[in-house]
Amino acid sequence: MKSDLAPEDNDAVKTDASATTQPTLEQKRTLRRVVSASFVGNFVEWFDYGVYGYFATTIAIVFFPESEDNLALLSTFAVFAVSFVVRPIGGFVWGHIGDKIGRRSALSISILIMSVSTFAIGLLPSFAVAGFLAPVLLLVVRLVQGFSAAGEYAGASAFLVEYAPPRRRGLYAAVVPASTATGLLLGSVLAAVLSATLSDGQLESWGWRLPFFLAAPMGLIGRYIRTRLEDTPAFRELAQQDEVIKAPVFAMFRDHWRPLLISMCAVLLNAVGFYVVLTYMPTYLTTELGYGATESFVATTIALVTYIGFILLTGLASDRFGRKRMLIIASVTFIVLTVPAFMLLDAGGFTLVVLVEIGLGAMLTLNDGTLPSFLAEMFPTRIRYTGFAVSFNVSNALFGGTAPFMATLLIGLTDSHLAPGWYLMAAAAVCLCAVICAKETFHKPLRDV
């Protein structure tokens, strides 16, 4: 599709660190369109993912046979985790497309696949209707979701970093986790409203399907916005100089294995923290601590609102103080404060639960607001999408998608409500070691990475 950007926009946003002049009106308009495209697309992708986590207890009843203890819930989270198995595969595929054909093409296709597959979840038959075919169909659709989501976070981050003014790459890249949290926020709000207004029978019969049906119109809007944009200046420059490589995956393993390994370990805190703090927490409060579903969703919703505000501040701080410093502070904070935070969750009332969730979310933003720019700057332009997508998705497949399952399993094995806190501490320790080994990149032009 022909872009609506004027010819002079092709050079509107430079990635050279020497560009210190204020952006023109056309440059500002271009940046606004870039931010909107990245925000809306990522918002849709992670709204879809969040809804599954927030309705986990209902989905367990709908798609799995009645069982004792928490077997059905474990089965629901197992399906959630298995869908992450295809994410490394998706990372290789979307990375190849993004580095060889263009960032915009990969992002436009991925959002379409995610929207269709999420809409399909709302149409699936229950276990009462289809028997064991129901969870099988759920697993298939979740695998498709996982494949499409593999290209979203990495692609949107690379897209924003390559368009952003040199000294604001951290702030612009922080739009990606902010849009992720906004998608989760909408999912949490809908879950709270539906759980408060519908009976258990209505929720299990048809109420849980409504959020999934929203995926189709939102996905079409996101795709339309993305197809109206030019690809990034950095990628267009690469293509014009005929420097686009045929096998970015091979080049990544051959020439950039060290930053790849560092990135995979640095993602660990985000992978575990994101899914424990922002998606698993309502289930934890309901099934482990005995809070009502509405109370649990309200607490998480409040935490998400504050998370969105904090994360943009963190992105801005990373532009001033550096990526390494912010990520080190985040890791140390989690190592020191996570278990005490879970102790407070177990001991306090609802008000204290809300405050603890806000605190955990704020701690997480120190990592999440910095990580997109950190990962994008770890790799040169010719393999940036691939390096980001592979490192991010491998860690999320191994530790992010399994986080709700592992939290539930560890609680059962240890008979301790603090088990998720210890698991978060371990992830933070690995992240800390990796970041210490990384080089600082926030002051470098992208072409010098």
From TrEMBL:
Pfam families: MFS_1 (PF07690)
Sorted UniProt keywords: Cell membrane, Membrane, Symport, Transmembrane, Transmembrane helix, Transport
Compositional bias ranges of the Acidic residues kind: 1-10
Domain of life (superkingdom): Bacteria
InterPro entries the record matches: H+-coupled_symporters, MFS, MFS_dom, MFS_trans_sf, Sugar_transporter_CS
Compartments it resides in: Cell membrane
Ranges where the Major facilitator superfamily (MFS) profile domain occurs: 34-446
Segments crossing the lipid bilayer: 46-65, 71-94, 106-124, 130-150, 171-194, 206-225, 260-281, 293-314, 326-344, 350-367, 388-413, 419-438
Stretches the record annotates as Disordered: 1-21
GO molecular function: symporter activity
Name of the protein in its database record: Putative proline/betaine transporter
Taxonomy of the source species: Bacteria, Bacillati, Actinomycetota, Actinomycetes, Micrococcales
